[in-house]
């Protein structure tokens, strides 16, 4: 007699991801269900047949119920129906139910004739039809069982998503607490040294503002342009202190309003000035930065001397910037980087609507 083997049961348990229902795994729950089915079959026939006959027929009937249900769930349904082979699924399911109904009928009558019957009985058409009808009912129950398993799987996935969301929110909270502790510490240092070294205190304040912008503003989709400009000015001020001779940096802003822009969008062009455009050994480093709006477009332009190691418009920073602009504006932007004599110029044009 064919029974679902351990490998199949293990496979079913793996597919179900070991869901827990009221503290029980689905495998354990199925064992309880089949024990309940066996008890129903047993007590429905114990009044008519001897105990030994009742036990044997309980085992046969319960086993055939399991064969039909698990055969559909583990083999027919995934092999045919889930692959879009509906016609084959219907045909093979019908053959499967009839075959096992015949097997169940002949096995039950054979055992009865051999061990319990006073006179042998024949396998009648009515008996086979009854077994086929019972097999069809079992098959329909297997579909219900399949839907129930899918529901519990979806429910488990939803619970896991909620758990992961809670963990992510907790991790985010931890990540926010740590930088804000640093911000508070920097502020305390700022007030501590302000009276003795105001310039150093201002640099600490600018560093604090840059880090706060990274943490609070950069994850957003849009930020005020004024916040982006403030971030750039703080960055430029901190980079300037690393230059032995400083730099003559002029920032020209002609803006009609405080527009919303993606954060960190202007950073790459400003960063390239200090990475490639300023010669630290040269006391003459004129840098101009322009920012203005015109007819619903924002223009950002930079110009700086070409250092000993000339800038190239094919650096990884500019490449990443171009890819980001393509994602944000789908071609509705202009990014140009060119060397004009001894001056390197970069310009960015993005829509404001």
Automatic annotation (TrEMBL):
> Which Gene Ontology cellular component terms are annotated?
membrane
> What sequence ranges are listed for the domain Signal transduction histidine kinase internal region?
168-243
Write out the GO MF terms. phosphorelay sensor kinase activity
UniProt KW Acetylation keyword? no
Q: Which residues cross the membrane?
A: 21-43, 55-77, 89-107, 127-152
Q: Which UniProt keywords apply?
A: Membrane, Transmembrane, Transmembrane helix
Name a Pfam family for this protein: His_kinase
Task: Tell me which Gene3D superfamilies the record gives.
Answer: Histidine kinase-like ATPase, C-terminal domain (3.30.565.10)
Task: Please identify the protein, giving its name as recorded.
Answer: Signal transduction histidine kinase internal region domain-containing protein
- Originating species: Mucilaginibacter corticis
């Amino acid at each position: 007699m064919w029974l679902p083997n351990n490998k199949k049961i293990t496979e079913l348990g793996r597919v179900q991801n070991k869901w827990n229902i009221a503290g029980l795994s689905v495998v354990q729950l199925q064992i309880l269900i089949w024990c309940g089915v066996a008890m129903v079959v047993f007590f429905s026939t114990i009044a008519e047949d001897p105990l030994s006959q009742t036990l044997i027929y309980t085992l046969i009937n319960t086993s055939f119920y399991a064969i039909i249900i698990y055969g559909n769930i583990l083999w027919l349904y995934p092999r045919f129906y889930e692959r879009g082979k509906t016609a084959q699924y219907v045909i093979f399911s019908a053959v499967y139910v009839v075959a096992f109904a015949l097997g169940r009928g002949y096995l039950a009558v054979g055992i009865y004739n051999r061990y319990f019957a006073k006179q042998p009985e024949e396998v009648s058409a009515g008996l086979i039809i009854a077994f086929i009808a019972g097999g069809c009912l079992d098959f329909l129950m297997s579909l219900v069982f399949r839907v129930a398993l899918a529901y519990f799987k979806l429910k488990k996935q939803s619970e896991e998503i909620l758990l992961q969301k809670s963990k992510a929110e907790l991790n985010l909270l931890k990540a926010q607490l740590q930088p804000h502790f640093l911000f508070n510490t920097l502020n305390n240092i700022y007030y501590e040294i302000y009276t003795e070294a105001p310039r150093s205190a201002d640099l600490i304040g600018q560093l604090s503002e840059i880090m706060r912008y990274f943490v609070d503003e950069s994850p957003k989709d849009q930020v005020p342009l004024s916040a982006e400009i403030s971030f750039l000015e703080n960055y430029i001020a901190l980079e300037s202190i690393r230059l032995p001779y400083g730099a003559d940096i002029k920032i020209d802003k002609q803006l009609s309003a405080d527009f919303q822009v993606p954060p960190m969008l202007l950073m790459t062009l400003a960063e390239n000035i200090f990475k490639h455009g300023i010669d630290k050994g040269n006391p003459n480093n004129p840098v101009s930065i322009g920012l203005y709006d015109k007819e619903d477009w924002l223009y950002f332009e930079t110009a700086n001397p070409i250092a000993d190691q000339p800038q190239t418009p094919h650096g990884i920073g500019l490449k990443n910037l171009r890819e980001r602009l393509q994602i944000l504006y789908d071609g509705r932007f202009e990014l140009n980087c060119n060397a004009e004599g001894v001056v390197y110029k970069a310009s960015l044009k993005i829509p404001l609507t």
